[in-house]
Amino acid sequence: MVHAGFLGLGIYLPQKKLTNFELEKMVDTTDEWIRSRTGIVERRIAAPGEKTSELATHAGREALKDAGLDAKSIDLIIVATISPDSNFPSVACKVQKNLGATRAIAFDISAACSGFLYALTTAKQYVLSGMAQNALVIAAEKISTLIDWKDRSTCVLFGDGAGACVIGPVKKDGIIADYMLAYGDQGDLMRVDVEGSRSPFDPDKEQFGKLPFVVMQGKELFKVAVNSMAEAVEAVLAKANLSKKDVDWVVPHQANDRIISAVAKKLEIPKEKIFVNIDKYGNMSAASISVALYEAVKSGAIKKGQTVVLVAFGAGLVAGANVVKW
Ligand code: UT7
Question: Of the residues 117, 146, 171, which one is the last residue of a structural domain?
Answer without folding.
Answer: 171
